[in-house]
Amino acid sequence: MNAVAATLRQSWVITLRDLKHWQREPWTPIFGIAFSIMLVLVFGYLMGGAIDLPGGGDYLPYLLPGIFALSMMFGIEATMSAIANDSKKGVTDRFRSLPISGAAVPLGRAGADLMNSAAELAVLMVGGLLIGWRASGSLGATVLAIVLLLWLRFGMLVLGVFLGLSFRGEGGVTAVQILVWPIGFLSNVLVAPESMPTWLAVLAQWNPISATAAACRELFGNPTGITGGVLADNALLLAVLWPAVLTLVFVPLTARAYRRLSR
Question: DSSP secondary structure string, 99-139?
């Protein structure tokens, strides 16, 4: 128990260190929020009038939960870049030379990224309320939707830490950053999969971000754009399972990558 408590204390110190870094250089979270706002403006106001939802409903309340989920996924880029930069500059090696737990560094980064993402999500939700989006579900359902969004972010940041430790070169980081875009858009965050060709719709429905977006729409009481398919009855279950799978797979891989840094 003492070892666990010590690891948590050390992780908290590293979390504070990363949060102070963002205080000095806040542009990464600011640009992340600005990008999400830009997507709302482009798809909600420029293109939204031409998009019909299967099952009916307005597009803007359909779009906003998708943007919330998309912002949680795109946070993987910030996590990966920060971890890769720390490794490249020797910051991670300096941490490894200290008498602290090996788990404290990735846990500290995860804590800082999760707190940053929670603040980003709060800003986006307030912005959504200002332009007319509403969560018409119960208070409990709304809280559960927010938890699911942060749960998705946690699964993504575990993956981001692993990628940051594994691909420290500029080329590797850039390649992953480019791949995040089509993976994020090949989902139901912007349009319903039922409007896609069959093979694309299947891929979009099994995208982890689609499960979280669909579950949040149900919990918020927003249009889902779903009339059939795997998400019709299983969105909530898949929204819980996908981040759990990412966590179970990449936590041991991250620990292994961290141990291999000095080799």
Answer: SS-TTHHHHHHHHHHHHHHHHHHHHHHHHHHHTT----S-H
